[in-house]
Amino acid sequence: MKRFFKFRYGEKGFTLIELLVVVAILGVLAAVAVPNIGRFMAKGKEEAGVTELHNVQTAMMAMMADEGITAIGQLISTNASQDMQTFPPDIVGPPHRRHTTIVWSGR
């Protein structure tokens, strides 16, 4: 068993300084990578939201074309609010910024 842990002639292990340098480099890399991963995830969620808005717009426009409807107001019962008269063609257009809420008044 002792022979298993012995080094061959001329071989040496890593020094404590070498190990500390490697750990420090890994720490710096982790400190740089973690915030970037958070930004990538936030950007992906934002793009997913814009894509979902585009999908809703496309589905609404296709349904309106199939049914011959020219205004969203035709889909709403007479007791409901008539705020939305038409579907905005540029709801998914630029500019989209982080932490911005898209509000459409329908006017």
Automatic annotation (TrEMBL):
<protein>
    <recommendedName>
        <fullName>Type II secretion system protein GspG C-terminal domain-containing protein</fullName>
    </recommendedName>
</protein>
<dbReference type="InterPro" id="IPR045584">
    <property type="entry name" value="Pilin-like"/>
</dbReference>
<dbReference type="Pfam" id="PF07963">
    <property type="entry name" value="N_methyl"/>
</dbReference>
<dbReference type="InterPro" id="IPR012902">
    <property type="entry name" value="N_methyl_site"/>
</dbReference>
